[in-house]
């Protein structure tokens, strides 16, 4: 693909056009910023970083803040004292960086996270993201006898791999499930349900107590949509999960999918969802839950960090795996969706690409990963990083859920690989939760979107 065509693809496919202020961030004149800087490869510099090369780091400043990155930058500077580091903490990553990728003047390392992140499959297709094999095969900082890839938790490398090449590395080992207050449940004598029938029975008790059983982030249906498909995958097993990711015909019409949609439609039909939830943002729904207005909330393990300063200290939030649709589910009750999040990339056109990789080598070493866990109340993707570390109630419950799941932790990729399918899934799930779609109509609509992706020759397909 020639540069003009590639840039046209990027302009049309990446998130939003840059504002005049952001466009001004592009290197004067645009165009290629020159060959990547490289230094001599030595035992202490296995990635061949040019020792005096400046390093530009862009961090998504969301629930986890950016102090962990500043700490990692200081550690990087201890090994590369001549390097001047330009640290930028932003929120709308796609909006800020789109013009720089188009102009071939990207930063050296990017935390591509948040609602406005860059579309990773588009960047991969345009060869704008480095293959991280060199980094993964380099010696880890905390144990040079072990490669970086071998220090990571199961599934982390796979989560950022596209057609056999690792393109992103996820700092956080995230689990997704159902959240509740341990304090509230202890006071009321409630126990977390393992099956959906038990869930409905408990919801009836909760409603009688004057508390809404559920709320959810209605403006962002993927929160509850994730819980729905996770329950379907637990029922249908890994075979169904792979069928969905591989765009196989009628995967979304599988009995387990329809049954999971039916289960969530029951919550609405029985009045077990807090009125007005469909109009709430994530922060609004989570605040209502933290205030005790609802018992259950679907979310990932970033929730506790995101709710700091809002949730009472006595709340004791905990996360549990989604209930089974029935005891005949193919996956056990402790199966949970878990895998990498907080995605870091090294742009292919980065001036200090080797420095970007070495920054990740620093960030993914045990000392920095442990520091991240302490600051963010979250599990890092590095083995052993939280051993002996006393965690908050939420983070500790996530660690317990991940440990209990073991090999039964699962992950899916369709929402990362196919943006149009994710959008159709979001929209259909939102309508399911407002009663505008029946469970079968929900399944049919998402299947049509999956079929459209499968037929489109312009969309790169991925398989597991």
From TrEMBL:
What Gene3D superfamilies does the record point to?
Periplasmic binding protein-like II
The stretch of residues making up the signal peptide is 1-23
Its keywords, alphabetically, are: Signal, Transport
Tell me which InterPro entries the record gives. Bact_solute-bd_prot1, Chitin_NgcE, SBP, TAT_signal
Domain of life of the organism encoding this protein: Bacteria
Where found, per UniProt? Cell envelope
A GO cellular-component term linked to this record: cell envelope
Pfam families, per database record:
SBP_bac_1
Primary residence: other
| PROSITE patterns documented for this protein | PROKAR_LIPOPROTEIN, TAT
Protein family per UniProt = Belongs to the bacterial solute-binding protein 1 family.
| Protein name, as recorded | N-acetylglucosamine transport system substrate-binding protein
Q: Which organism is it from?
A: Allokutzneria albata
């Amino acid at each position: 693909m020639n540069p003009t065509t590639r840039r046209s693809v990027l302009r049309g496919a990446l998130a939003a056009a840059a504002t005049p202020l952001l466009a001004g961030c592009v290197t004067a004149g645009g165009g290629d910023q020159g060959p990547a800087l490289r230094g001599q490869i030595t035992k202490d510099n296995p990635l061949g970083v040019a020792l005096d090369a400046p390093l530009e780091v862009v961090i998504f400043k969301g629930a986890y803040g950016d102090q962990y990155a500043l700490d990692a930058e200081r550690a990087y500077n201890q090994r590369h004292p001549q390097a001047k580091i330009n640290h930028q903490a932003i929120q709308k990553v796609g909006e800020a960086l789109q013009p720089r990728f188009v102009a071939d003047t990207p930063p050296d390392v990017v935390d591509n996270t948040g609602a406005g992140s860059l579309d990773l499959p588009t960047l991969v297709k345009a060869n704008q993201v480095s293959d991280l094999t060199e980094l993964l095969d380099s010696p880890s900082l905390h144990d040079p006898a072990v490669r970086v890839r071998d220090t990571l938790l199961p599934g982390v490398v796979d989560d950022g791999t596209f057609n056999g090449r690792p393109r992103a590395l996820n700092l956080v080992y995230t689990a997704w499930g159902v959240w509740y207050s341990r304090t509230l449940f202890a006071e009321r004598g409630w126990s977390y349900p393992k099956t959906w029938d038990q869930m409905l029975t408990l919801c009836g008790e909760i409603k009688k107590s004057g508390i809404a059983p559920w709320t959810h982030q209605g403006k962002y249906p993927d929160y509850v949509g994730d819980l729905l498909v996770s329950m379907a995958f637990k029922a249908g097993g890994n075979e169904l999960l792979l069928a969905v990711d591989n765009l196989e015909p009628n995967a979304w019409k599988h009995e387990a999918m329809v049954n999971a949609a039916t289960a969530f439609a029951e919550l609405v039909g029985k009045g077990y969802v807090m009125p007005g939830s469909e109009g709430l943002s994530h922060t609004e729904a989570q605040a209502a839950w933290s205030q005790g207005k609802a018992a259950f909330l679907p979310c990932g393990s970033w929730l506790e960090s995101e709710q700091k300063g809002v949730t009472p200290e006595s709340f004791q939030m905990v996360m549990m795996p989604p209930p089974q649709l029935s005891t005949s589910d193919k996956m056990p009750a402790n199966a949970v969706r878990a895998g990498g999040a907080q995605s870091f990339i090294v742009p292919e056109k980065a001036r200090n690409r080797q420095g970007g990789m070495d920054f990740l080598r620093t960030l993914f070493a045990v000392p920095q990963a442990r520091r991240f866990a302490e600051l963010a109340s979250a599990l890092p993707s590095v083995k052993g990083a939280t051993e002996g570390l006393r965690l908050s109630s939420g983070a500790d419950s996530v660690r317990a859920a991940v440990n209990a799941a073991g090999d039964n932790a699962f992950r899916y990729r369709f929402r990362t690989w196919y943006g149009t399918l994710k959008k159709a899934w979001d929209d259909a799930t939102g309508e399911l939760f407002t009663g505008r779609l029946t469970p079968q109509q929900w399944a049919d609509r998402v299947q049509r979107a999956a079929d459209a992706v499968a037929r489109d020759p312009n969309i790169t397909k991925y398989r597991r």
